[in-house]
Amino acid sequence: MSFADLGLSEKVLQAVAAAGYSEPTPIQHQAIPHVLARRDVLGIAQTGTGKTAAFVLPMLTLLETGRARARMPRTLILEPTRELAAQVVENFEKYGINHNLSVALLIGGVSFADQDAKITRGVDVLIATPGRLLDHFERGKLLLTGVELLVIDEADRMLDMGFIPDIERIAKLTPFTRQTLFFSATMPPEIERLSESFLHNPVRTEVAPPSSTASTITQRLFATGAESHQKRERLRDLIRSAADFKNAIIFCNRKREVGILHKSLQRHGFSAAALHGDLDQRARMAALDSFRSGEIPLLVASDVAARGLDIPAVSHVFNYDVPHHAEDYVHRIGRTGRAGRTGHAFTLVAPGDERSLAAIETLIGQPVTWEGPDLSSLPEPSERPRSSRGRGERASSSRSGRDDRGRRGREREDRPAKALPKPREPREEKTLAAEPARRRAQPRPERDSRPDRDSDGTGVVGLGDHVPAFLARAPRPRSGR
Ligand code: AMP
């Protein structure tokens, strides 16, 4: 089947040809005719499957008739993170080159005024993260009663991030008669229920079950001591010795660990960027751009920030931490080995990670091969060498070494052989140093545990755009939600 058979307009077909696509991917093939027929669609698909074009291409076709009105967007796309939202905008730019549509991006970290000005002129497509969208709505600057088509993308990630109440509220602000497209990589029961409440008689399409990992990816496990410095050292060795290395995404379970590891790698002379939910928008985009362009070969990232990023050719994924949620493993390693390319997914496994590892192996339906000795070969805790700490510093009680706050920058083993320019200390680490022990002890990983609402700029109401970071993190008032 070709794109021409799907019912897309001539303008869209020309743009698709210009993009160099010869045939639709399975999700495009399955979903596009139904979207064009104005049916609701429930799409179960991961990023990397061509999911974005599966809704952008028919939307462009549908939007060729009609006109945008002031403050009343015609279509609305909700994304869990700023990066995903920005990526959808890029898709509209790429496939909409023959259209003269107005597209607005409502995400945190950028000026309200510019966004307001755009909405006021009238937009055909509004792409937003939930927090910033509701902020605009609450300021009375936005009406959702003209929304003909609503896209809820990455619904399972919205659930993880605590956005579901916001999504429900937003959906109620749009007309009941709207068309709804609902995409999720996984369908846990909560998402199933949600889809039932949002969709009317939907067409269900499903591609690549979420538990499958591409056969083009070489997966390996590497045993490591649980202390942070041991894990960092192991990681550096793996990066240095990796065959076919081009670039890598290094995943950590917690935002704080992303910051620490990023600084550590830089101190050791590696060229690395960091991506997590506490960084401001400009820093996140800069990190992503420098990684995409190949200028920086290492991207240290949290799950939420990296989810769904379209980075076509990543040679390696390193799991610095074993993810505590097995699906995250599938998402993480899906960043490599895309579109038939070969890829490598290397996971550091420390004592204490056994249960998470077992859950991953159950989900993917196969054991992952150890490279070198497994955990049983590690010395017992009492035999393990003591890490080099200064006097008076307490030993870490955390197996993953998460209690090393206060030792930042003082770890001998983390000093570079030669002096390198000292990277500026990310602001987040100061505040996170005060993180209560109770939270640290929680078995559940952070997964950017505080929903990324701050990243939607929800704390900036009334203060313009120059808000100190600690204020920007304050929760939005929840009245009426
Ligand atoms: P997505 O799943 O939307 O993140 O898309 C993953 C990648 O597939 C992006 O780089 C798209 O540009 C690319 N892509 C989308 N549709 C097609 C297609 N029909 N043929 C080849 N590549 C595609």
Question: What does it look like?
Answer:
Helices cover about 35% and strands about 15% of the residues. The strands form 2 sheets. It has a 7-stranded parallel beta sheet with strand order 3-4-2-5-6-1-7, with helices on both faces. Strands 10-11-9-12-13-8-14 form a 7-stranded parallel beta sheet, sandwiched between helices. The chain starts with 9 loop residues before the first helix and ends in a 9-residue tail after the last helix. The model is unreliable at about 385-480 (pLDDT under 50). It has 2 domains: about 5-205, P-loop containing nucleotide triphosphate hydrolases (Rossmann fold), CATH 3.40.50; about 215-375, P-loop containing nucleotide triphosphate hydrolases (Rossmann fold, 3-Layer(aba) Sandwich). Strand 12, helix 14 (about 325-335) and strand 13 (about 345-350) form a beta-alpha-beta unit. The protein has helices spanning about 10-20, 25-35, 50-60, 80-95, 110-120, 130-140, 155-160, 165-175, 190-200, 230-240, 255-265, 280-290, 305, 325-335, 355-365, 430, 435-440, 470; strands spanning about 40-45, 75-80, 105, 125-130, 150, 180-185, 205, 215-225, 250, 270-275, 300, 315-320, 345-350, 370. The longest helix has 14 residues, at about 80-95. It has 18 helices and 14 strands. The chain is α/β, with parallel strands linked by helices. Adenosine monophosphate binds near residues 21, 48, 49 and 50. Adenosine monophosphate (AMP) binds near residues 47, 50, 51 and 52.
